[in-house]
Every structure is written in C-alpha cells, then in structure tokens.
What does this fold into?
Amino acid sequence: MRDKRAPFLIATSYLAALLFIRLSVIIAGSAESEFAAAAKAGNMPEAYFYIGRNVILFGYHIHHFYFGILFMAVAGWFAIVGSKRVTRTHTAILYGAGLGLFFDEIGLLLTWGDYYSSLSFTLSAILLGVFLNILFFGPFWRSVRENLVNVERRSPVAQFLMRDHRMLGTVERFVMSRSGSERMRHVLTGTLHKTAAVLILWYPKFVFYFVGVDFVVSGVLYMVRPLLREEYEQ
It folds into this structure.
C-alpha cells in the first residue's frame, strides 16, 4: 500500500492553519478594522508600518494569503531542489499550512474584498473533501469505477456515462496514458469527474456549455479521423 503519510500531513496542516487563521481573524476583528475598510474601498492605509490586527508594511496592507503563497513556494523549492535538513515531512506540513492560509482568503480574492464570502467555506470544504477521498476513499471510488465499467451497456444510464461523454473519456484516456501510478490514475480521473459535477451543480448553465463543447470536439474528431487514417495508410 502506498505511503499516505505526506498526504495526511498536508491535509491536517491545511485544516489546522485554516481553522487557526479564521478564528484569529474573528477574535481580533481584523476584517472590520479601519485598514480593512480602506483596503475594501481601494484606498491606501494611513500608516507606513503597523503590526497588530492587520499587517502594514511600507504602506501596503499584507493579507495572510501572501504568507500562504510564500509557504507553498518554499515547500515547492525544497521538494524540487532537496535538502538534508528539510525533510519530506517538513515540506508537507509547510505546503499544507500555506494552502490553509491561502484558501482562507480565496473568497476575498474572488469577490474583491468580502472576507466572509461563502466561497471561502465552499472551496475550502471541497479541497478538504478531495484530501479525505485521497486518504480514505480510494477503494470505494475504485469499486464505483469498476461497477460503472461492468454495468449493462444497453442501460440508458450506461449509454450516457460510457458513450455520450466522449470529452471526459478522451481526457481520461490521456490522463491514464501519462500517469505512471495506477492509484494516481484513479485520483486524477475521479477529480476530473467530480470537478465537472461540482461545476454543473454550482452553475447549472455550465451543462449547456459542456454538452456544446462535447459535440464540437466529437464533430472535429469524426471529421479529422478519416484524413489521418488516409495519411497513415499512404
């Protein structure tokens, strides 16, 4: 069985950092300070250096998602370059903490200043769900996949899943051809399907664009395939 220590450390440090920073902001009232109000209005804070409920450096309001990006960048550097002192455990914890700091303010970034936007909770919960699936539900999704593959193909549901979703099937085959690990193939394929499902549930009109693009891609493939076959035969 593949070692899940690193994903577990990433998930736990992510959740710990997310809860810690959110509670800290709520207790300190950082999102309701005069500096936060000035930033939301698009104004520069009336301070050059200040470290308290907010952090002001050189007249700029420094949000904690900057520290999250910094943590992830440092973790990525040591993961790629390597270090005798910085172990895989350290980089996993640092990366997870960076994710937590970043996702706590993702709603603020997407809404141009609303720290309490529900997007932060929704997207953070989705990412936590991905971590939990990787850690605990691998066998479950593998069995679901096997049951879908072996389902009666004449069923309308099977036809919809197995035949009409050509675009997902094409991307799935690409992922499986590029991924060396069988487990990674399942994770990437499952993430792809769940992402499409979340987008459709969150934004129902997405299904129209999805189906439209599916038909366009299928039409192009049907038109190009004979030409490629003729060129190959020559």
Remarks:
- The chain has two domains: 1-136, 137-234.
- The longest helix spans residues 206-233.
- Residues 228-233 have pLDDT under 50 and may be disordered.
